[in-house]
UniProtKB/TrEMBL annotation:
This is PH domain-containing protein. The chain crosses the membrane at residues 12-29, 41-59. It comes from Algoriphagus oliviformis. Keywords: Membrane, Transmembrane, Transmembrane helix.
Amino acid sequence: MVVIKPKISTYVSLGLILAVLFTGLILLLRDFAYKGSFGLWFYLIACSLITVVILMLLVKMLAGWRFITAGRDHIVVRLPLKRLTKAYPVSEILAWEEEVILANKKEFRQVTIAFEDRNSIAVSNHEHESYTELVNYLKKKAGKQMIKTKKA
C-alpha cells in the first residue's frame, strides 16, 4: 500500500511566505492610514498586487492538500477540504504520464493520471511524499496505459 501525502516542509515554507505577505500588507495599510507617505496610486497598486499574490498562494495550498492511496488494484483520492473520497480501480485509468524536467541541475518530476470519469490528478516529487513508489506501482499495475514522453 502506497500512501502519497503532501510534504509538510512545502506547506511550512509557503506558510512563511504568506505570513511575510500578510505582514507587508498590514504594514502598508497602516502606513496609508496614519502617515500617507506615498501617493494614493502606490497604495492601490501595491495592496492589490499583494492581495492577488496571497490569494493565488492560498488557492495553490488548498488545492494541493490531498491524500492518495494506491494499492489492492485501486487508487483512492481523498480531498479533506472538500470532504470527498473517490476510489478508482486501476482498470479505470485511461492514461498516465510522467514528465521529467531538468532545471538548475535539479530534476523535477510530475506524474499525471487521467481517469475514465474525466478527472485527473497530478503528483510531483517536490510536493508529495512516496512519489517513486507511486510511479513504480503504476508501472507495475497500469504499464499499458503509460504515455511515453521524452526528457525536456
